[in-house]
Amino acid sequence: MAESALSRLRPYREVLASRARSQTSYRASFVLDLVSSLLIGVVELAEVSILFHNVVRLGGLEFSQILLVFGLADLCFSLADMTFGHCDNLPAYLRAGTLDVFYLRPQPLLMQLVTSDLSLRRLARALVGLVALVVGLTINDIAWSVPHAVLLGLAIVSGYATFAAMFVWAGGAQFFLVEGAETTNAFVYGGRYAATQAASVWTRPLWVVFGFFFPMAFTAFLPAMWLLGVHEPDWLPHWLGWCAPVAAVWAWALALLSWRWGVRHYQGGGG
Amino acid sequence: MRGVTRTVRVYWRILVAGFRRQSAYVMAAFGGLVANTTFGLLKVAILFATVRAAGGELEGYDVALMSTYIWISQGLLGSINMSGRIEIADRIKSGDVAVDFLRPLDVQGAAITTEVGRAVFNLIPRGLPSVLIGGIFVGMALPADPSAYALGAVSVLLAIAVSAATVYLLVGVPGFWIVETRGLQILYMVVSGFLAGLFVPIWLFPDVLEVAAQATPFPATMMYPVDVISGRAAGLDAVALVAAQVAWLLGVLAVGQLLTRAGRRHLEVQGG
Questions:
Q1: Which of A85, A213, B33, B136 has the smallest count of CB within 10 Å of its CB?
Q2: Which residues are registered as beta bridge partners of B58?
Q3: Which of B202, B239, B1 is nearest to A46 (CA)?
Q4: Lowest mean pLDDT among A101-105, B102-106, B167-171, B210-214
């Protein structure tokens, strides 16, 4: 039983290993990719820190506290982008009709698409997130206990799963949008931007969209508030940070529904 | 004299062709508008909070002026090239540019004119609606002086031209020497938006970074036109910003022209 499950996963492993080898074989190009990817993380961090160059507190938080939110969100997003980000290529496959090739193989479509690539360069960006997270955890006065450590672990896993679900959700929507791919960017990349912010400054409509429907506030902000012991925003219960896994399950329900609708809608490339 | 009119007419036709080509992508324009508006609302939340935290005024920005900055910069996003993608880069890589050199047209002039045509079209489905949505739902400050709008229109057109010419220079022509410019394109995408003042106005940067940004053509593609239209820079200040845009345009075009000529001498068509 276990053996057959392993052998069923083998084709995916082989594809991923070959993708990793192909990226690292052109050294100069790979290094430039890593540097660019690192720079993306640095620029994003700079955008946040510039605001704190002008003010001390934003949405009730200091820079050290927002650093924790930023680190958590960016680490999770970068890892999701590395493993699921190529779902963004779907419109190109749809236009060229090359998606039909996936239908010829006896494996689930979504599994094939997800395992068709692995963008190693995004590790550099994840590194920026990781450093911000570690610094954030160190310089803030956190009353460490077992629940704190558990929540941190839960938040990282759930945050990763939530962002990954966003890419799948967007992929499903592409079957309808095709040329309008940018529509989903508003929520996938807009979601990343939202997740790194102090969500306490949001208006209620933004909370509806990026707080709950696309649960971006659950990827970093709400768990970070519980870790820090900060009650922001004051109109939400403090324990909401523990609901990050619920948010991840909700995001995946949304993603799989969108994917199912999309695949049913698809009529083939006309080949 | 007839030669000049003929040249002007050819470039006018290329401009119109670029404009019409872009008009075929209605869904893409709609998607762009949704993205611009969503990002705009997130910027409103965080930047308004910053201005309020600073006591209602920050580097000359109050909430109303910050709103103008946000919605005009979001509106320009469809027309200012922040992705670093330009068609000529693909043509240089594939060798098709050899055909372009055979045409009785300047390669740089034609490439930039096409880009400008597409960018001007995008002002209609993405630029104006963004500004309208912001104005209606969030509210913004607008200058009372009508001359600000005239100068603002000039400034926007200059910004579009500077942007196209800069992508051509930094991502397009290097292709004559390095062939694969994807790395440069990504680098452009990362740096241009930040230094143009897309997420935070460059006037909020620490001094060193503010000076560094102004040593690049990027603020001329977004920050300056936003300041001119919003009235943050008025009178002589506004004229100075437009003059800076003209200077950047001429500089970037001149270097681009020199490199295009050098690139032509260096050109080896793949497999040809």
A1: B136
A2: B61
A3: B202
A4: A101-105
- B205 CB within 8 Å of a chain A CB: yes
State how far the Cα of A166 lies from the Cα of A77, in Å rounded to an integer.
10
Dihedral (C-alpha) A191, A196, A198, A201: value to the nearest 10 degrees? Answer: -30
Cβ atoms within 10 Å, residue A139? 13
Q: Find chain B residues with C-beta within 8 A of A190's C-beta.
A: 35, 38-39, 42
In three-state secondary structure terms, B56 is coil
Query: Coil, strand, or helix at residue A271?
Result: coil
Domain boundaries, chain A: 2-265
Closest approach of chain B CAs to the CA of A181, in angstroms? 7
How far apart CA A84 and CA A111 sit, in angstroms, is 10
pLDDT in tens, B2-53: 788 888 898 899 888 888 888 877 788 888 888 899 999 999 999 999 999 9
What are the pLDDT digits (tens) for A227-252? 999 998 989 999 999 999 999 999 99
Of A186, A187, A197, the CB nearest to B46: A197
Of B186, B200, B206, the CB nearest to A36: B186
Reading phi first (left if > 0) and then psi (alpha if -120 to 50, else beta), residue B271 is in left
DSSP B234: -
Q: Could you give the 3-state DSSP secondary structure of residue B179? A: coil
Indicate the residue type of A97. G
